[in-house]
Design brief:
The protein is an alpha/beta fold. It is built from nine helices and eight strands.
């Protein structure tokens, strides 16, 4: 029996890159997988195509696995509902949702355009919210019927969202929102038998190989730390029954290295016990900042 035998999973954006690697790994370990992909270009442009998802499904089936393709838009409310329904209708259940789909509209903040913000926030934030909302409703209803639920949400944030990234204001804002969303999902859905965690992967994909060419360059020999399939073992473990005690966490994953991110938390403070005089806050704020941990550097900052 495979490590994930009997589990049913949806992986969004699974036609290429990290999503493809996740879908292949989950299927290799015995899960039945819905391979969702809209089939558009790196920047979200171009006509939708079923080809990327179909190719991954064929690869899974050729390896003896079970999968079906889905071409719904993750950020479309009804499309996300159809995606969740497709898994349940095909295999009678849903256990795992891996939210991975996304694209880039990189630009310096002062030059960014409204449409770019709308597009990036839609695909990343709403594209995480919509599938998870319908999956969560399914799991809540099952729990209320007295059924045993042992379900998983695995979200995809980024170092850009956790530390910031020069030239990626919209992407960083969206990925930061996903990290916060994960905390809320974990807190609210635990009562129904659902865990929610997020990964912040560093890997070579269409979204990173141009922006970080030197970092993502394939080595001539030895371990290829930036290969996307290095990230998928953690996704598979988080998708498993073995991870049920872990929720509300964000993991940085790069090559063979896994790091638990330590997010926003209260730091040094001072309580005046009364309303502050702004003219007397200078030394107070400087002292607080001096005793607080130094923030991680923003990606791309000199």
């Amino acid at each position: 029996m495979g490590f994930l035998a009997g589990r049913v999973a949806i992986v969004t954006g699974a036609g290429r890159g990290l999503g493809r690697a996740h879908a292949l790994e989950l299927a290799r370990l015995g899960a039945h997988v819905v391979v969702n992909d809209l089939g558009v270009e790196r920047d979200g442009a171009g006509a939708a195509s079923s080809a990327p998802a179909d190719l991954v499904v064929a690869e899974i089936r050729d390896g003896g696995g079970v999968a079906l393709a889905n071409g719904d838009d993750v950020a479309d409310w009804e499309g996300a509902r159809r995606m969740v329904t497709a898994a349940i209708q095909a295999w009678g259940r849903l256990d795992v949702l891996v939210c991975n789909a996304g694209f880039l509209r990189d630009r310096m903040f002062v030059s960014s355009e409204e449409g770019e913000w709308d597009d990036v926030l839609r695909v990343h934030v709403k594209g995480h919210v919509a599938p998870a909302r319908h999956a969560a409703a399914h799991w809540r209803d099952a729990a209320k019927r007295g059924e045993a639920v042992d379900a998983r949400i695995v979200n995809t944030t980024s170092g850009a969202g956790l530390q910031g990234s020069i030239g990626q204001a919209a992407y960083a804002a969206a990925k930061g929102a996903i990290a916060s969303l994960t905390l809320v999902q974990a807190a609210e859905l635990g009562r129904y038998g659902v865990t929610a965690n997020a990964i912040a992967p560093a890997a070579r994909t269409r979204m990173t190989e141009a922006a970080f060419a030197a970092m993502m360059k394939r080595p001539e020999s030895g371990f290829d730390a930036m290969a996307p399939d290095n990230v998928s073992p953690l996704v598979a473990w988080l998708a498993s029954a073995e991870s049920r005690a872990i929720t509300g966490r964000v993991f940085d994953v790069q090559g063979g290295k896994i790091t638990v991110e330590d997010g926003w938390r209260p730091g040094p403070s001072v309580d005046h016990g009364a309303r502050w005089d702004p003219r007397k806050l200078g030394d107070v704020v400087r002292d607080l900042v001096a005793t607080a941990p130094v923030p991680a550097a923003v990606w791309g900052a000199s």
